[in-house]
Specification:
By secondary structure, chain A is of the alpha+beta class. Chain A has 14 helices and four strands. The chains are: A alpha+beta, B alpha/beta. Bound molecules: adenosine-5'-triphosphate (ATP) and magnesium ion.
C-alpha cells in the first residue's frame, strides 16, 4: 500500500516537473489524455521513471480519476471479450456450466428437504408437546367424553380433544391413502383417542403427567409425542451438518472443475500469452481474461442451479402443502428465498473466479516468451 | 542505451550463440547489425528483450542492469522496447487491427487513443484497408508490415527490428527505412538486424558485424 502510494507520489512529482503545463494537465482530467508529442515520450527520463515505478497501470501525469476510468473500461472490455469467447464455443463451455449447475443444486436440494423438516417443526410447534391416550376397546363413547371433560379440568392440562373411532377412521382414510384397507374389515379396529396438551412443556412436568395418565382406568396406552419431535430435531441437525460438510466438499470439487477447464484454456492460448508478454503485457494483464471466463462460468452455473432448485421446490410444493395442512402450519409455495438465491449466485461466481485464479496464475507466471 | 559487457550465450546443447560480445549503443543512435545467417543476430536481440538470459556478462538497457530487474519490472521495460520479429509473432485469432492494438492495450492507453494510433500506424505501413483481416489472409510482406506497425505504434524508446525488410520489395524497404530514420531523428534508439548490405550502405549508419557469435567490427566508435 505504501509502495503504491510512494510510486504515485513519485509520478506526480515527475509530472509536475514536466513540460506539460498545469492547464493541460487539468484538462486531461475531464477529457481523455491526448497523445503526447513524440519528443516528449522519448525524452531522457521517461524509461527510467516508468521502469522504476514498475506499476502495471501507472503512467506519469495521470490522475486518480483517469486511472479509475481506465480501469473500468479495461474490465468492461475484458469481461465482454471473455463472454464472447465462451459464446463462440458454447458446447465446450456447456459441460463445465452443467457440472457447476448440477453440483450447486445438490446442496440447494438438501436445503429444500430441510425446509420441509423445519416446516413440521415450525414456530409454535417445536415447543408444544402432545400426549395421546389410546383408550381400551371396551370404553364407550359416553365414558370417553366424560374422561375428556375430567382431564380438561386437570390443572396440568391445557386442552383435551376426544377423537372418536369413527373420526379416527375418517382421518386415516383421508391422509393415509390406505382407506380401502379399513373397508375390508367388518369392525372399525381403531380405538378412541384423547389428545392432551400439557400446560407446562418442561420435560419433568410432562413426564409426571405421563406417569399419572398411564394409571387411569380405560387407558391402554399413552404416547408422548416429544419422542418423534426429538428425533426430527436430531435428523434436522444431521441434515444441516451434511449440508455444511457436503457443501464444502462440493465447493472444493467445483474449484477443481473450473480450475481444470481454465488450465486447458491457458494451455491452448500459450502462444498468444507469449506474444502478449513480448509486447509488455504483465502477468496480471494476461490473467484478467481468464478470471472473467471463470466468473461467467460461475455465474451461469449459479443461474442454472437456481433454476433447478426452483423446479425442485415447485415439484414438492404439493406434498409440502399437504404436510403443512396436517400440522396446521402456514406454507407458501414460491421461488427460492433470497438467502438461497444469493448463496447460489455468489457462490457460483466465487468458485468460478477462485478456481480460475488458482489454476491460471502459476501457469501464466511460468510461461516465458 | 544498450550496453553489452563481455556477454556470452551458450545454449543448453553446448552451442555458443554469442561469444564475449561487448558493445555500446548510445541513446538516440541508429545502428545496423549484420552477419551471415546463424551469426547470432536474433540471439543478441532476444537477450535485450529478456527472452533469454546471457550465460555470462552483463547487459544494461536504459541504465538498468537486466540481471537485477525485478520480475514486475520486466513488462514495464518491454513496453518501452518496440520489436519487429523475424517470425512476426502475430496473434492468429485476432484481426490485423487488434494485433497492432494489443501493444497499446498492455500499455494502458485509452480506447479512442488506441483507435487513432492504430489507424495511423497501419496507414504508415500501407495496410489500413487490411485492418479487419486475420493474419492467415495476409502475404509474408504484409505480415511483416503488421509487425512493424505493432512495434512503432507505442512510439517506443528503443526499437529492435529483426530483418524488418526481409520480405519487402526495394521501394517499400526504402520507405520503411526512411520512417525509421525519421523516428531516429526524433530521438528513438534503433537497432536493425539485417542481411541486406545494400540497404545498410545506403543508410550510412554505424554497423555492427557478427561472425559466428563474435563481434568483428563496429563495436567501438
Ligand atoms: N535455442 C537454441 N538452442 C540451440 N541453438 C540455438 C538456439 N537458438 C539459436 N541457436 C543457434 O544459434 C545460432 C545463432 O542463431 P540466430 O537465430 O541468432 O542467428 P541469426 O543471425 O539471427 O540468423 P538469421 O539471419 O538466419 O536469422 C544458430 O546457429 C542457431 O542454430
Ligand atoms: Mg535471425
Amino acid at each position: 500500500m505504501s509502495k503504491r502510494k510512494s510510486s504515485r507520489a513519485e509520478n506526480t512529482e515527475r509530472s509536475s516537473g514536466d513540460r506539460v503545463g498545469r492547464v493541460e494537465r487539468k484538462a486531461a482530467v475531464t477529457t481523455w489524455r491526448k497523445p503526447r508529442p513524440l519528443e516528449e515520450r522519448v525524452r531522457k527520463d521517461s524509461l527510467d521513471a516508468q521502469v522504476r515505478a514498475a506499476r502495471k497501470t501507472a503512467r506519469p501525469g495521470r490522475s486518480a480519476l483517469e486511472d479509475w476510468r481506465w480501469l473500468a473500461q479495461l474490465h468492461r472490455r475484458t469481461g465482454r471479450d471473455a463472454l464472447t469467447r465462451i459464446l463462440v464455443t458454447p458446447l465446450a463451455s456447456l459441460m463445465t456450466v452443467l457440472v457447476l449447475g448440477l453440483a450447486l443444486a445438490l446442496p440447494a436440494g438438501l436445503c429444500v428437504v430441510l425446509d420441509a423438516f423445519r416446516l413440521v417443526l415450525g414456530e409454535g410447534h417445536a415447543g408444544s408437546v402432545r400426549l395421546t391416550l389410546y383408550l381400551e376397546q371396551g370404553v364407550s363413547d359416553e365414558r370417553a367424553r366424560d374422561m375428556k371433560t375430567q382431564l380438561a379440568q386437570d390443572p396440568a392440562v391445557l386442552q383435551a380433544i376426544y377423537i372418536t373411532p369413527e373420526q379416527g377412521a375418517e382421518d386415516f382414510r383421508r391422509y393415509s391413502g390406505l382407506g380401502s384397507a379399513l373397508d375390508l374389515l367388518d369392525v372399525n379396529p381403531l380405538p378412541g383417542v384423547i389428545e392432551l396438551e400439557p400446560v407446562e412443556a418442561a420435560a419433568e412436568a410432562v413426564q409426571n403427567l405421563h406417569e399419572r395418565l398411564k394409571t387411569l382406568s380405560g387407558v391402554s396406552q399413552v404416547r408422548l409425542d416429544t419422542v418423534w419431535l426429538e428425533r426430527l430435531v436430531a435428523l434436522l441437525e444431521v441434515g444441516e451438518r451434511l449440508l455444511q460438510g457436503g457443501g464444502a466438499l462440493i465447493g472444493l470439487m467445483l474449484l477443481l472443475v473450473v480450475g481444470n477447464t481454465i488450465r486447458l484454456l491457458v494451455a491452448n492460448r500459450r502462444d498468444e500469452i507469449r506474444v502478449i508478454k513480448l509486447v509488455g503485457g504483465s502477468d496480471g494483464f494476461v490473467l484478467l481474461p481468464f478470471l472473467y471466463t471463470g466468473f461467467w462460468y460461475g455465474l451461469t452455473g449459479g443461474c442454472l442451479a437456481w433454476l433447478i432448485t426452483a423446479a425442485l421446490r415447485f415439484l414438492v410444493s404439493d406434498s409440502m402443502a399437504q404436510l403443512a395442512g396436517l400440522y396446521h402450519v402456514p406454507f407458501q409455495p414460491g421461488l427460492p428465498d433470497w438467502h438461497l438465491s444469493l448463496f447460489l449466485l455468489a457462490g457460483g461466481c466465487a468458485v468460478g473466479v477462485l478456481g480460475a485464479l488458482l489454476a491460471a496464475w502459476s501457469q501464466i507466471r511460468r510461461i516465458r516468451p | 542505451m544498450i550496453v553489452f559487457e563481455h556477454v556470452s550465450k551458450r545454449f543448453p546443447n553446448g552451442y555458443t550463440g554469442l561469444d564475449n560480445v561487448s558493445l555500446h549503443i548510445r541513446r538516440g543512435e541508429m545502428v545496423f547489425l549484420t552477419g551471415h545467417s546463424g551469426a547470432g543476430k536474433s540471439t543478441l536481440l532476444r537477450l535485450v528483450l529478456l527472452m533469454d538470459r546471457p550465460s555470462s556478462g552483463r547487459i544494461q538497457v536504459g541504465g538498468y542492469s537486466l540481471s537485477r530487474l525485478r520480475r514486475g519490472q520486466i513488462p514495464a521495460l518491454r513496453r518501452h522496447i518496440g520489436v519487429v520479429f523475424q517470425d512476426h509473432q502475430l496473434l492468429a485469432d485476432r484481426s490485423v487491427f487488434e494485433n497492432v492494438a494489443i501493444a497499446l492495450r498492455v500499455a494502458d492507453f485509452y480506447p479512442d487513443e488506441i483507435d487513432s494510433r492504430v489507424r495511423a500506424a497501419l496507414d504508415m505501413v500501407g495496410l489500413l484497408d487490411r485492418a479487419a483481416l486475420f493474419p492467415e489472409a495476409l502475404s509474408g510482406g504484409e505480415l511483416q508490415r503488421v509487425g512493424i506497425a505493432r512495434a512503432m505504434v507505442t512510439r517506443p524508446t528503443v526499437l529492435l527490428a529483426d530483418e524488418p525488410t526481409g520480405n519487402l520489395d526495394p521501394a517499400l524497404s526504402a520507405d520503411i527505412m526512411q520512417r525509421f530514420n525519421k523516428y531516429n531523428q526524433a530521438g528513438m534508439t534503433i537497432l536493425v538486424a539485417t542481411h541486406d548490405l545494400d540497404l545498410v550502405r545506403q543508410m550510412g549508419h554505424r554497423t555492427l558485424t557478427l561472425e559466428k557469435g563474435r563481434l568483428v567490427s563496429g563495436a567501438a566508435q
